[in-house]
Design brief:
Elements (H helix, E strand, L loop, with lengths): L1 E4 L3 E4 L7 E3 L2 E3 L4 E4 L3 E7 L4 E10 L5 E3 L3 E3 L3 E7 L5 E7 L14 E4 L2 E6 L3 E8 L5 E3 L3 E4 L2 E7 L5 E5 L8 E2 L5 E2 L4 E4 L2 E5 L5 E6 L8 E2 L2 E5 L2 E8 L2 E8 L10 E3 L2 E3 L4 E4 L3 E7 L5 E9 L5 E3 L3 E4 L2 E5 L6 E5 L14 E4 L2 E6 L3 E8 L5 E3 L3 E3 L5 E7 L2 E6 L5 E2 L5 E2 L4 E4 L2 E6 L3 E9 L3 E4 L2 E5 L2 E8 L2 E8 L1
Antiparallel strand pairs: 1-11, 2-7, 3-4, 5-6, 6-7, 7-8, 9-10, 10-11, 12-13, 13-14, 14-15, 16-17, 17-18, 19-20, 21-22, 22-23, 23-24, 25-26, 26-27, 28-29, 30-31, 31-32, 32-33, 34-35, 35-36, 37-38, 38-39, 39-40, 41-42, 42-43, 44-45, 46-47, 47-48, 48-49, 50-51, 51-52
The site of one 2-acetamido-2-deoxy-beta-D-glucopyranose (NAG) has 3 residues, from loops.
Pfam families: Fn1_2
Protein name: Abnormal cell migration protein 18-like fibronectin type I domain-containing protein
Organism: Caenorhabditis angaria
Length: about 475
């Protein structure tokens, strides 16, 4: 930052008591004033009456006075008061040697941002010094360093950005086998009983196993049988293992299955628990197994696994998987163990019919006053409203039918909100099929509201509601 002031005033006065004039003000000899908050001007007079003003110093924004040709440094900022060859005086501002860096870091402070380390250098300059790896290893800017086996380069680019990246192509790294030999990327090599492949960054991975007398690599999690040996290459979690088993030698002992005191040879079948036909299966390791082939019903009918058969009132099924003989009611099975197919009985508020396979199905609902409402239908009960017998979710329920229509005394059907006349009353169809009285009807006149009178000739017609009762009365005036 620069502030410039460039003038030198010269004048002449007659009086012995010579004074300088500056900006309309009089100054005595040697008097110094500050102008523009930035410069110091001094008055110089001669005995012969001549005078001049001269810039003798600068004033910093902080109010410090600096003589021409000198500088001040408060750490953060340096202010220099310079007079150039044209006689101009300039206040030059620059960062102090101990100035803070951006972000408020103090001079000399070092800090790390992400993976990069900086220091606040002289003059408030932020200097990038190091890259820092995840393990805390520092690599100097412009240098390379090892992170494990990988060479990383730490650099600051011309555009100012800093980076830490692999110094070489991932595939350029060689792997080192246990015997010290170097292997190229992609190369496969044996190391004991394992086969490794050299991968990126010189990291070799196990890709299989190697066994004596086996030319090909044994893939992971596979067995290879050679002569009397089985070679097994296993990966279990992160662990690899290689094992060789001697194959089971033929034994003279013939394994037999035993059941209820009898023995059976491999392949023979027998009946178990009166319900299954099983086959004897034996293994070279002398273990035996009873393999279920089919199920047998109490009547002695054999059913293959996965099939079923009807026997009397029951259906027998030979289930898959963990084989079992399962029974379910047959077509002629009784319901509740007492009702025959087609029989109808009453259970609480419901009428139920026995269907084939022992299934009971609901026929209708029965209201308390004995009205039978077939499933899915509505009926008006004695209390005057309509009930419905419906399936809601898994249940059959009987409930007031909110959306039910009304029926007039003459048997007509009315929709909700319809009004009609019934004798001297006006009714409106409301929820649950109830026709409520909403007024009275006078012949040749029309409707009148509840609790209103209508006078015609010598008579007064009254439409009244008392308690729950409605009345229509005609009385002489
Ligand atoms: C001018 O001032 C000087 C010193 O103040 C004094 O000695 C001198 O006599 C004065 N001259 C006149 C003409 O007043
Ligand atoms: C007055 O005196 C000064 C210094 O002695 C001289 O430089 C200047 O020319 C003189 N001025 C006049 C008007 O005599
Ligand atoms: C800065 O330069 C480096 C190296 O040339 C480049 O990878 C990076 O993208 C540049 N960054 C910006 C913001 O231009
Ligand atoms: C390999 O053989 C071993 C030993 O007989 C056995 O436990 C394993 O299940 C076999 N593995 C495969 C993949 O067949
Ligand atoms: C014997 O061999 C059978 C079939 O290979 C196997 O399922 C069983 O687990 C083995 N039993 C023993 C005790 O090794
Ligand atoms: C019956 O009338 C009421 C009030 O005017 C109205 O809110 C309702 O929607 C009507 N119902 C039908 C089924 O029209
Ligand atoms: C209707 O008339 C009767 C008998 O005159 C009277 O008692 C009653 O107050 C009247 N009601 C209205 C609402 O005017």
């Amino acid at each position: 930052m620069k502030v410039i002031l460039a003038f030198l005033l010269i004048g002449f006065a007659l009086a012995n008591d010579t004074k300088c004039t500056y900006d309309g003000k009089e100054l005595s000899n040697d008097e110094v004033i500050t102008v523009q908050n930035a410069f110091q001007i001094k008055c110089l007079t001669e005995d012969n009456g001549s005078w001049k003003t001269e810039i003798v110093g600068c004033v910093t924004p902080g109010g410090e006075k600096v003589n021409v040709g000198e500088k001040s440094d408060d750490g953060q900022k340096v202010h220099e008061c310079i007079k150039n060859e044209n006689g101009q005086v300039v206040l030059k501002e620059s960062r102090g040697t101990k100035a803070d860096c951006q972000g408020g870091h103090k001079s000399g402070e070092t800090w790390t941002e992400k993976s990069f380390k900086f220091t606040c250098a002289e003059g408030g300059v932020t200097k990038f010094t190091h890259c820092v790896t995840a393990d805390g290893v520092e690599i100097e800017s412009g240098k390379t360093g090892k992170v494990g086996a990988i060479e990383m380069k730490c650099e600051q680019h011309a555009n100012g950005t800093v980076s830490m990246s692999a110094a070489n192509e991932p595939s350029s790294y060689e792997c080192e086998a246990k015997d010290g030999t170097k292997k190229k990327n992609g190369e496969e090599y044996k190391e004991g009983n394992f086969v490794r492949k050299c991968g990126d960054y010189g990291i070799a991975k196990i890709v299989g196993c190697s066994a004596e007398g086996v030319t090909e690599t044994i893939p992971i999690n596979q067995n290879v049988t050679v002569g009397d040996f089985v070679h097994s290459c296993v990966k279990d979690g992160d662990k690899y293992s290689f094992k060789t088993f001697g194959k089971q030698k033929k034994s003279n002992v013939v394994p037999l299955c035993g059941h209820e005191g009898k023995t059976y040879k491999h392949g023979e079948t027998f009946i178990k628990q009166d319900a299954f036909r099983v086959k004897c299966v034996t293994y070279p390791n002398l273990t035996t197994e009873h393999q279920v082939l089919s199920c047998i019903t109490p009547a002695g009918i054999e059913i293959p696994i996965g099939r079923s058969v009807e026997e009397g009132e029951l259906i027998y099924e030979c289930t898959n998987g963990d084989v079992s003989l399962k029974t379910t009611p047959g077509k002629t099975a009784k319901c509740r163990k007492i009702y025959n197919v087609g029989e109808i009985w009453i259970e609480g508020l419901f009428k139920v019919r026995c269907e084939p396979y022992g299934k009971s199905s609901l026929v209708s609902c029965l209201s308390k006053d004995g009205v039978e409402i077939p499933l899915g239908q509505q009926r008006r009960i004695a209390a005057g409203y309509v009930m419905e017998c419906v399936i809601v979710g898994d249940n059959v329920i009987m409930r007031p039918a909110k959306e039910a229509k009304c029926q007039t005394s003459s048997g007509e059907t009315k929709n909700i909100n319809d009004t009609w006349n019934e004798g001297n009353f006006v009714r409106r169809c409301e929820s649950y099929g109830i026709g409520n009285i909403i007024g009275c009807h006078i012949e040749n006149v029309g409707p009148i509201g509840i609790n209103t009178n209508y006078t015609r000739g010598d008579y007064v017609h009254m439409c009244l509601k008392q308690g729950d009762q409605f009345y229509f009365k005609t009385v002489p005036k």
